[in-house]
Amino acid sequence: MANVSDMIHNLRHKTIIHLYQRVTNNRGSA
Q1: What is the gyration radius of the CA atoms in the chain, in angstroms?
Q2: How many CA atoms, within 13 angstroms, populate the side-chain half-sphere of residue 23?
């Protein structure tokens, strides 16, 4: 079982990627 800190780190990383992709998509469609 992974550490809680690792889970938080992975979740944060995924969130940052998701937000970055949203910004990129909005910029591309603008």
Answers
A1: 13
A2: 6
